[in-house]
């Protein structure tokens, strides 16, 4: 649908009106026969028809093109009232800038930002409404620290809320203690496995050293026996020498 022609100041050229809705063109497209339409209007028309609504020439979505530049410029220069005129906005601006103005217009009706509140209020009055909105968030006046989010929460029981909060903290602390306990047990198991593995390696090394020492002692005994044998042979040789 187009822009309501009643919103415009002064004369609007017939060529800038949609051939379907007869309002001022919004997001316009042009057919090969040069008739112009709002995008939403012509797309809706072509769902059930295959011709131009003005001269009945055959057209297709693929044949639609943007408006001629000079027509687009004429369209953008048109002056119109803000859609919030009925609420008190007196702004008149070009069609080219009307969307930007209306997005920021102080007279626009916007929803309250508090969850649960269904009030629609002018943007300029929103801050004042938020101060008194029954769905606004605020702390309990009794000092328990509970955040009141809605009108129903105003009757909350501070003791019960604090007890609930303590239970939550207690549960959280127990969970953290259990996590720390499991982590410490996991670390101890890992260290225990490492120590057992290290002990096994050291035991093997000790057995190897014992084996080496045993072989060395055997070699020493053999050397001592050989030395005694050698000494006896020297003594025998000495005796034979004396006899000679």
Automatic annotation (TrEMBL):
<dbReference type="GO" id="GO:0043122">
    <property type="term" value="P:regulation of canonical NF-kappaB signal transduction"/>
</dbReference>
<dbReference type="InterPro" id="IPR013083">
    <property type="entry name" value="Znf_RING/FYVE/PHD"/>
</dbReference>
<dbReference type="GO" id="GO:0008270">
    <property type="term" value="F:zinc ion binding"/>
</dbReference>
<dbReference type="InterPro" id="IPR017907">
    <property type="entry name" value="Znf_RING_CS"/>
</dbReference>
<keyword id="KW-0863">Zinc-finger</keyword>
<dbReference type="Pfam" id="PF02176">
    <property type="entry name" value="zf-TRAF"/>
</dbReference>
<feature type="coiled-coil region">
    <location>
        <begin position="192"/>
        <end position="243"/>
    </location>
</feature>
<dbReference type="InterPro" id="IPR001841">
    <property type="entry name" value="Znf_RING"/>
</dbReference>
<dbReference type="GO" id="GO:0016874">
    <property type="term" value="F:ligase activity"/>
</dbReference>
<feature type="zinc finger region" description="TRAF-type">
    <location>
        <begin position="101"/>
        <end position="144"/>
    </location>
</feature>
<keyword id="KW-0862">Zinc</keyword>
<dbReference type="Pfam" id="PF13923">
    <property type="entry name" value="zf-C3HC4_2"/>
</dbReference>
<keyword id="KW-0479">Metal-binding</keyword>
<feature type="domain" description="TRAF-type">
    <location>
        <begin position="101"/>
        <end position="144"/>
    </location>
</feature>
<feature type="domain" description="RING-type">
    <location>
        <begin position="18"/>
        <end position="56"/>
    </location>
</feature>
<keyword id="KW-0436">Ligase</keyword>
<protein>
    <submittedName>
        <fullName>RNF41 ligase</fullName>
    </submittedName>
</protein>
<dbReference type="InterPro" id="IPR001293">
    <property type="entry name" value="Znf_TRAF"/>
</dbReference>
<keyword id="KW-0175">Coiled coil</keyword>
């Amino acid at each position: 649908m187009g822009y309501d022609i009643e919103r415009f100041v002064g004369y609007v050229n017939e060529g800038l009106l949609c051939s379907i809705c007869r309002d001022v063109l919004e997001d316009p497209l042009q057919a090969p026969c040069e008739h112009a339409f709002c995008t939403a209007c012509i797309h809706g028309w072509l769902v059930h028809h295959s011709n131009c609504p003005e001269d009945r020439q055959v057209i297709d979505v693929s044949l639609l093109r943007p408006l001629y530049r000079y027509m687009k410029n004429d369209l953008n220069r048109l002056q119109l009232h803000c859609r919030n005129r009925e609420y008190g906005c007196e702004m008149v601006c070009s069609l080219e800038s009307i969307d930007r103005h209306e997005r920021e217009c102080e007279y626009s009706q916007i929803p309250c930002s508090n969850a649960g509140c269904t009030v629609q209020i002018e943007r300029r009055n929103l801050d004042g409404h938020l101060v008194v909105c029954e769905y606004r968030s605020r702390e309990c006046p009794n000092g328990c620290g509970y955040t009141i989010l809605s009108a129903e929460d105003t009757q909350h029981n501070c003791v019960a809320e604090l007890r609930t909060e303590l239970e939550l903290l207690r549960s959280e602390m127990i969970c953290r203690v259990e996590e720390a306990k499991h982590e410490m047990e996991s670390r101890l198991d890992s260290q225990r496995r490492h120590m057992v593995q290290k002990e096994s390696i050291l035991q093997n090394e000790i057995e190897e050293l014992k084996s080496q020492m045993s072989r060395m002692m055997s070699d020493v005994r053999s050397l001592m026996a050989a030395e005694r044998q050698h000494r006896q042979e020297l003594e025998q040789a000495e005796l034979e020498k004396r006899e000679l």
